[in-house]
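Notes, Module 5: Reading structure tokens.

Key idea: the token line is not a picture. It is a compressed description, and you learn to read it the same way you learned to read a sequence, by spotting repeated patterns. We will look at two proteins. The first is printed below with its tokens.
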Amino acid sequence: MRVALITTDSDFLNGDDVETDMVREYLNANSQHLHADALIWHTSPDLSAYDALIFRSPWDYPIRQAEFSRWLSSIPANLRIFNPIQLVNWSADKLYLKELAAFGIRFSETSFCDTLEGCRRAFGCFAEPYVIIKPNISAGSRDTGLFRANDPEALTLCEQIIASSKTVLIQKPIDSVQDGAERGLIYLNGRFSHAISKGAILRPGGGYVGGVYTENIQPATATDNEIQLGDAVMRAVQQVAARNMWGADAEVPLYARIDVATSRDGEALLLEAEFFEPQLFLRFVDQGFERFMGAIEEKLVR
């Protein structure tokens, strides 16, 4: 079976995606059932010869949304897509946090603002000196910042996000994230596989720690509470997919990364639930690529 691994051009990726080619090479060298190619989505690749499409690193989609949507609509209807487009669309928009809250999923205090005046009011509601500002649709922490609530640059970023027709999320920072306590929990076919830790990315006052976006990734052991939260998110998403009749591949996604953090008072909180194009950090765990190959074969072959 032929599998298309969807990415974007190397000029945009700038070396940040190191695993797509590793996945392609591993599948081609080790699977008796799969042949994989890495395809750049915006070159309009011919997908007619493929049995399945797997999103890996089309990370320029937030700045090419209309073009990307048109490309998605052109994908042949008979092609298995991982993860399914309905789930991709849902998880690409962080407004899903509202829906997950209905299932009892806990996340940091968040205000959702569509106007500049709403942002100003939200700033006054946070007791913490700092707030995180981000758009509802983004990737790689673009247009995201950590500011004092009274910093004029915070309102400037809000204005920029609203001008791009997006919703502003204003969040209470989770204190431990700046100490490197963020965990990425990777799930394959609905089952917890492994975890990584991330160092702090956002610099107080705006911008990134060290001046450029850098993920300091290390293998990690998730706590029982963090895994329980990740499992609860997966169950909630299964119910969302079933209720919306998105199909079995959305109810049990091929891959997911559930980003969590445990606050200093011991509560595990959701940061993001990524079902579209998350890095899976397979290289940070023993047999990571073998696990991913097994998950793909479980979907397509068994």
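Here is the second protein, with the sequence above and the tokens below, as before.
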Amino acid sequence: MKKLIIIGGGNMGLAIASGITKKGVILKKNIFFIEKNPERINYLKKKKYFTADNLNKKGIETIILAVKPSDFNESMTVLKKSIRKSALVISILAGVKIKNIEQYLGRKQPIARIMPNTPCQIGEGISALTFNRNVTKEKKEAVKKIFTAIGKTVEVNESSLDIITAVSGSGPAYFCYFIESIIGAGNKLGLNQKLSGELVLQTAKGTLLLLSKNNLPPDKLRKSVTSSKGTTEAALKTFQKKGLDKIIFSGIKAAKERSIELGKLNK
């Protein structure tokens, strides 16, 4: 990959640029951002990235679409006017299907659809990848190089992406919400906010590392912590009685349905 344009200079677009430059996938001088927010443009320039007003850059064969879904139609209008038919378009827009992009660019355009998540900002994310029939093996490898620079990747069927959006795309927010709730509970029960936060954050970090390093399934670790008639069992029985698993399922289902709705809005 010689040159890359990223349309949208938000957190995820910048995370991708940072990851691929650190891993040597592409030189920083060959990345160009198209961004309409003046403050964000200045921020990108401070980070030593180039910005462009349009797609008229020689040798651009890869374009990452990293705008909000609400800006999809405007971005596609710009792309349609100036994109090469051989250029690879990589979309990270939630809910926007490959066929929605093909309606603007035609069925011969190579298109990849990706669902990353926010831990990609520190190289610890996971991205689900899917491709249309025009993406060659060489271009697939280029996409995988980009997203393995910011975490793990899995290749999936596009039909799974609305669920994946709900599970891993939105997942970091669920973990944060649960962490907030435990910190708040500790505070209400008598701990100061700072101490409660320190205890909970380190417990969350340590638990995830324990699962990962020992390749443990979560239920096995949970059971090893849960003594009969002990404090952990008392909490878990309360969660079960209150239907926490059903609440979590309902929330993730709502996220999946919203992903489907976003796709319909951008037809």
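Summary for the second protein:
- The radius of gyration is 21 Å.
- The chain has two domains: 4-156, 169-262.
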